[in-house]
Amino acid sequence: xxxxxxxxxxxxxxxxxxxxxxxxxxxxxxxxxxxxxxxxxxxxxxxxxxxxxxxxxxxxxxxxxxxxxxxxxxxxxxxxxxxxxxxxxxxxxxxxxxxxxxxxxxxxxxxxxxxxxxxxxxxxxxxxxxxxxxxxxxxxxxxxxxxxxxxxxxxxxxxxxxxxxxxxxxxxxxxxxxxxxxxxxxxxxxxxxxxxxxxxxxxxxxxxxxxxxxxxxxxxxxxxxxxxxxxxxxxxxxxxxxxxxxxxxxx
Length: 251
Known about the structure:
The chain has 251 residues and is α+β, with helices and mostly antiparallel strands. The chain folds into 2 domains: 4-149, Roll (Ubiquitin Conjugating Enzyme), CATH 3.10.110.10; 157-232, no CATH class. Helix content is 37%, strand content 14%. The chain is built from 8 helices and 6 strands. It has helices spanning 4-7, 9-22, 111-117, 124-145, 157-169, 174-184, 209-218, 221-232; strands at residues 26-31, 41-43, 47-57, 64-72, 83-86, 248-250. A 4-stranded antiparallel sheet has the order 1-3-4-5. The protein has a two-stranded antiparallel ribbon with strand order 2-6. A hairpin with a 6-residue loop joins strand 3 and strand 4. Helix 6 (174-184) crosses helix 8 (221-232). The longest helix has 22 residues, at 124-145. The radius of gyration is 20 Å and the shape is globular. Residues 234-245 have low confidence and may be disordered.
């Protein structure tokens, strides 16, 4: 599969320039197979990565804290978002409680939530500022106090997915959430005569159709389908070697 930078040279130049201006200690590079992403994995193929040091302002008054990070860009970037890897002793390579469950690959958010913060048209710097920086701030708090902060984190696996959709829909209950997700994943809007998943027994047009339509405007059906697949068991809630990590190999 061809890489995005091979057929879109201007985008690569723009991304590299923006990154250099916003993050002085990071650079966007094309690396060969065998390049060390971090202490745990190497690349299998040529690819583009953004790597270096990123500084955040700690919320506990400790000043700036620096983290070594690597952002792997998939071949069809920016249709798919980058993947964050820690490349720093302060970021454990395998610790699910730190949302770094496998080989230093960070679990930043639910699939639909990532696109909500990083919509089409966004760039690498946007990804860093909107998703990576909050993740690192969360990590800095954990290091400072030995426990996670009350903000910025969701539960692992299915529970975290249900938490996100509960926030979006303003209602709870696993069966109810799954019912709405099945309507949200459709390409075409559900019909008003269909029964509302909220459990009222009423038709959508007489119940939560407006909420459903508003939610469909902000969530990508493909991403909802990915989240639903995890819940349905078609993809595990944890990262696995086969399906959930980019093409890397162990050191």
